[in-house]
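Notes from the 1:1 (GR / supervisor)

We went over the backlog. Supervisor wanted to see one worked example end to end before approving the batch request, so GR pasted a single chain during the call. The sequence is below; no edits were made to it. Supervisor asked that the structure be written out right there so they could see what the output format looks like.
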Amino acid sequence: MVRAAGALCAVAIILLVGGCDEVLDATAGDPTAAPAPGGGVSGAGAPPGAGSALQVLGTLPIRAEDNSPPYKRNEFGTAWSDVDHNGCDTRNDILHRDLRSITTRSNDDCIVLTGELRDPYTTRIIRFDRGRNSSAVQIDHVIPLADAWRTGALEWTAKERLGFANDPENLLAVDGPTNQQKSDQDASEWLPPSPGIRCAYIARQVGLKSRYGLWVEQAEADAMRQVLQSCPQQPPLGMAAASG
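Structure output shown during the call:
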């Protein structure tokens, strides 16, 4: 049975910040505070909170990437498999969760035909219309599959990689062109255009890397730390496996 859309969080930002009935507010708690040169935060000297994303970041192994054998998408299984066996593929599960005002196919309420997305990466409102502009909304892996491969997933079993590729904690409906710009870049190479979401974005990457036993490269760790020093009490996200 496909889960009712009304029982899910309605917009993509909810997955990042970790609670329902929230909207993106780039000024709340001043998450946009820019890190000062050298990685500190102007006027801030707070140490990382116990159990914070910044603290968890310090526990991640730092290693060089390993891309031998080279990354191939098919190593993570068939795209958008129905891994939770709810009768709906992962892509449509995420569209149901992250879009609002959706319509579905009359004979198959799994298939999302139209909807509206408040993009967490740009804060823009984007209209999704299957068949006309389906690529306007894409499903992003917060930790790109290629990055996961290079930082430990190449050692996983096929079943583990399939689960990671379809883990809703690592998936967001986002603006298509922005997703294309991100590609497989890590935090040292790409951050969301909206500064207000960067703490939560990095906190989710940190939480997921910790849960899945992935490592970080030195430049990646440095970039993550710079972001999280502007929000030292930010908890990690994605640490717990999503419930079915």
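Supervisor's comment: The beta strands are 100-105, 108-118, 125-129, 137-141, 171-175.
Batch request approved.
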